[in-house]
Amino acid sequence: MDPRILDRLRCPVCGEPLAEATAGTARALRCPRRHSFDIARQGYVNLLAGRAPHVGDSAEMVAARADFLAAGHYDLVATALATAATEAVAGLDAYPLVVDAGAGTGRYLGAVLAALPDAAGLALDVSKPALRRAARAHPRAAAALADTWQRLPLADASTAVLLNVFAPRNGPEFHRVLDPAGTLLVVTPAADHLAELVDALDLLRVDPTKADRVAGSLGGHFIPVSSAEHRTELTLTRPEVATLVGMGPSAWHTDPAALAARLAALPEPVQVTVTVRLDAHRPR
Q1: DSSP state letters, 18-81
Q2: In angstroms, rounded to a whole number, what is the distance separating the alpha carbons of residues 195 and 173?
């Protein structure tokens, strides 16, 4: 693990610093109080304190997301994050640590690190299939199994840029780990995101109060500094639409047989609107 990342990790049990330890072929991170956390052979470290209440995205969802993102369909999100992160680290003295809370496959973290040659990155997620991919997202990235609703396994004020893309937001913990001059970048779906598919495929709708809920979850700890909407039109095949549905939250709520029938009725190619909000916040 990159020493710059390890230096800012903390034991999720007692909050002490962590160091690498080996026993034969087994590798782990261990704190001075001898709490030990295994490093999986796929490259990620398990920094859960106890059992997580959920297991995150399934292997099928993660594979669908990896395929869809690799095709470049959501590159507008990666580009917007890379641009915003570049602006966010200007003027920070220490090397930047970029943390992606709810990182999924790590593609967005990888895009940001590619734009910040002096930065190191940490992907946090509760899904083991996602972390197996995130651990390989970029040579300067590491990955850790962690529940973002719990205390994050990071030192206070350790993070220059915190990414939160289509993922839950833990305002108090995000505030604790961000440098006072750091930036939280939050990506959420806009009202017309995937609008053409919502009725046609009976998908989950974007909550019309989404922006207000995001602001409410962060308002006590953060000050909004900018907001921008990013929009593109995709031309997809039916199999690509199926992959898009399979990678998101609707995958948990859609009957496969009913979805297949609805997909078959779609005219091909399928025009799909992608619209997201990117909001930047600074700690109060």
Answers
A1: -EEEEETTEEEEE-TT--EEEBPTTS-EE--SS--S---S-HHHHHHHHHHHHTTTTHHHHHHH
A2: 33
* C-alpha torsion sign, points 242, 244, 246, 250: negative
Q: Measuring CA to CA, how many Å separate 258 from each of 37, 61, 194, 227, 262? A: 43, 18, 19, 37, 6
**Terminal CA-CA length for the chain:** 32
CA dihedral 14, 154, 18, 30 (to 10 degrees): 60
Q: What is the pLDDT along the chain (284 residues), one digit of tens a residue?
A: 899 999 999 999 999 999 999 877 778 999 999 999 999 999 999 999 877 677 788 999 999 999 999 999 999 999 999 999 999 998 777 789 999 999 999 999 999 999 999 999 999 999 999 999 999 999 999 999 999 999 999 999 999 999 999 998 999 999 999 999 999 999 999 989 999 998 888 887 777 766 777 777 787 899 999 999 999 999 999 999 999 988 887 777 777 888 889 989 999 999 999 999 999 999 99
Q: What is the rounded CA–CA span in Å between residue 248 and residue 45?
A: 25
The SS3 call for residue 47 is coil
279 three-class SS: strand
CB atoms within 10 A of CB 201: 22
**How many Å apart are CA 218 and CA 282, to the nearest integer?**
10
User: In Å, how far are 117, 141, 201 from 194, measured between CA atoms?
Assistant: 34, 31, 11
Tell me how far CA of residue 176 lies from CA of 6, 94, 151, 166, in angstroms.
18, 18, 9, 21
Are 243 and 67 in contact, with CB atoms under 8 Å apart?
yes
The Cα–Cα gap between 55 and 125 comes to 9
* Packing angle, helices 59-70 and 107-115, rounded to 10: 40
